[in-house]
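Spend some time on the protein that follows and explain the fold to me:
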Amino acid sequence: MGFGSYTASDWAKLKKSKNLSAGQDVKEVFKKTSCDPKYDPKFIGTRECFDSEDHPHSTPIVVGLDVTGSMGYLAVKIASEALNDLIMKLYSTGTVEDPALMCAAYGDYADASPLQVTQFESDIRIAEQLLELYFENGGHGQVVPTCLWEFLSRHTNIDAINKRKEKGFLFTIGDDANIRKSDVGDTVKRVIGDDIGKATVNSLLDEVQKKFHVFHIMIGSDGNPDILSGHRIVIDKSDIDIIPDIIIGTIRMQKGEDYDTVLGDCDKIKAPLLGNALSQLSLTGTGGTLRL
């Protein structure tokens, strides 16, 4: 996937046709009442992110949203504004060459559909597919981004890695740091169908890091200071407008730019909030192993 280009006019047409606005209820934006099989990892062999004539240097970027009950406001914000803002800035700033975005929705381990994944796309299909995801609105206290890690490590075929040994970028966003650690294998087998044997949360994290730089944007208080230490950014709920800027800034710093340069290019109004966010990162090296 990944052909075509994302344009402001295509987004304007989609937003008008879907009547999207930040003030809508989550059920007005995400209208699916069950998971579409084309986004259910049980029915997906491999998601591909290949170079093309349009995009010869594809860079995979995954935005994973916590879709448990408390996160409806964020999903609406991402769908109606922030995703478009992120894509336009990726293209306008040249932060990465040929960005190809996948959206993912992960929930609680007890949900009927704890994981959904779109294709890697480079045009308006990014937003179209996000709107087709099912917002289950569940939550029993233990989220499973681990299933997303396992899927990305074992069910993706990526030219950036295969041809250039360049990792993609994974950003999960949510307000729950309570990752399901028990029965990891049972959960992955139920959700994806893979028998992962004695794999653990940390071994799955180690594995996905071979393909992706992994980051988590935590909304609200940090209930678990150990989660992705140095690759975790905590922001207030009132500051979600800067999430696209956080993602852009984090990618730039991961690629070697220094904090002051990145902050100097930021909108002056956003600079204090973005500075506080990016100062939480520890990106002195790219090969270190994160631990929970």
Residues 284-289 have pLDDT under 50 and may be disordered.
